[in-house]
């Protein structure tokens, strides 16, 4: 493979390069021979979904005629848009799943993600008394189908209670049986402690998840503290305490990470308490990462009570990812979570668009901020799910093993429809030559591709 006239963003000056890759190794890297007026392309590390649900995409936008193989979900479209409604309607949707339906929607998510520049993801699949192991079996097939394009890390996920309600024990046994019978295909254990019906059961959920992940040598991933109630218990502190009690840093596989998603409750706490939490994480050397999920969080959080007049001053709760990294030294990144279902009934799941959102969400408008936000959907996202970033250094060296990269294409001219009788209507295009150009103004999907 030859890449000609590309920009490597951390090379000094405005140098452009020609690269030749042979047998998976970068053989040559030379200053380009292309003329200065030939548009250059920009080469970047690829994107990563650190948190996305593989069994639930496009439930509301599947747009095919219902059949025995492909159910209709249109009656489950949001009415109030509340979190309770989303949980209830998703439970109804799960009762309609078929193997063909899960494979089609999952394939569409993986294909779209790869077209957007994603080469790795942590994919959640729910296992409970309704679904059994059907979503996991579909994920295993999808992982095999796309193994040459996307590294799919499967998370066996307990969305529903595993200790409370009449189904808690069955939900828990479904996951434990899946780990016993299909555990070789599972990389991560995930749970949702806040859905339990009492705080003691939420703590039991956390304790069970830690013990089970350590027993099976898995990464650990919590949906946690999904509220904006400043008086509620901050369960992250319980997670840290139980990780210490179970001696994660001594007894667990040290290649495995712990991830906390959502955690909007953290935005209600004073900075001193967050600083104390960050200090505990560092003191214990915990591989703890936070994932902000703005597309879902902004849709779900800060809603007024049902039948209440919608106040104009209401919180928009999602993790302050940039501040967590810059001000508190925590490990954090950004994820898509859901696409086209009750929790996020909009969007395409594009990580670059998510990074662009971050400029406004976090008021992060400097060149350095742009580089940070890009890392939140790239290298920091891979760090969170325990994948190596070796080989993705933006300053590439001859002799390095090549790994797939994200190529952003530039064109010289934009061609528009001319007035009748006039010549072609051409407008000089703005070249994108740095990360800020990508994050401040994300390119169309058609102008990016994974190379290698």
UniProtKB/TrEMBL annotation:
Alphabetical list of InterPro entries matching this protein: Metal_Hydrolase, Metallo-hydrolase_Enzymes
> What Gene3D superfamilies is this protein classified in?
Metal-dependent hydrolases
Q: What is this protein called?
A: Uncharacterized protein
Q: Which organism is it from?
A: Apiospora aurea
């Amino acid at each position: 493979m030859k890449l000609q006239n590309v920009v490597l963003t951390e090379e000094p000056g405005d140098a452009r390069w020609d690269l030749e890759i042979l047998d998976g190794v970068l053989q040559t890297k030379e200053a380009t021979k292309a003329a200065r007026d030939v548009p250059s392309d920009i080469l970047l590390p690829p994107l990563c979904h650190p948190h996305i649900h593989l069994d639930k995409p496009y439930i509301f936008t599947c747009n095919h005629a219902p059949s025995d193989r492909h159910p209709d979900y249109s009656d489950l479209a949001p009415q109030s848009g509340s979190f309770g409604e989303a949980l209830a309607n998703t439970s109804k949707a799960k009762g309609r799943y078929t193997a063909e339906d899960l494979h089609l929607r999952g394939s569409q998510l993986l294909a779209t993600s790869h077209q957007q520049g994603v080469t790795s993801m942590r994919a959640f699949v729910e296992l409970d008394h309704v679904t059994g192991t059907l979503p996991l079996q579909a994920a295993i097939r999808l992982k095999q189908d796309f193994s040459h394009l996307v590294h799919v890390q499967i998370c066996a996920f307990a969305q529903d209670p595993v200790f409370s309600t009449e189904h808690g024990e069955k939900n828990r046994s479904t996951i434990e049986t899946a780990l016993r019978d299909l555990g070789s295909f599972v990389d991560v254990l995930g749970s949702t402690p806040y859905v339990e019906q009492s705080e003691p059961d939420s703590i039991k959920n956390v304790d069970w998840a830690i013990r089970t992940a350590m027993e099976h040598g898995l990464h650990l991933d919590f949906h946690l503290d999904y509220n904006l109630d400043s008086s509620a218990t901050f369960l992250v502190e319980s997670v840290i305490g139980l990780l210490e009690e179970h001696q994660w840093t001594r007894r667990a596989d040290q290649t495995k990470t712990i991830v906390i998603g959502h955690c909007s409750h953290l935005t209600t706490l004073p900075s001193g308490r967050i600083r104390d939490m960050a200090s505990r994480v560092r003191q214990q050397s915990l591989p703890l990462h936070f994932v902000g999920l703005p597309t879902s969080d902004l849709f779900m959080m800060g809603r007024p009570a049902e039948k209440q007049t919608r106040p104009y001053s209401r919180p928009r709760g999602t993790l302050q990812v940039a501040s967590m990294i810059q001000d508190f030294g925590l490990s954090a990144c950004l994820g898509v979570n859901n696409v086209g279902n009750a929790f996020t009934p909009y969007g395409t799941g594009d990580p670059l668009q998510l990074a662009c959102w971050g400029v406004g969400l976090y008021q992060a408008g400097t060149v350095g901020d742009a580089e940070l936000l890009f890392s939140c959907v790239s290298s920091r996202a891979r760090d969170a799910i325990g994948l190596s970033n070796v080989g993705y250094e933006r300053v590439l060296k001859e002799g390095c093993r090549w790994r797939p990269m994200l190529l952003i294409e530039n064109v010289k001219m934009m061609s528009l429809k001319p007035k009748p009788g006039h010549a072609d209507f051409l407008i000089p295009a703005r070249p994108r030559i740095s990360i800020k150009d990508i994050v401040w103004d994300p390119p169309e999907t058609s102008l990016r591709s994974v190379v290698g």
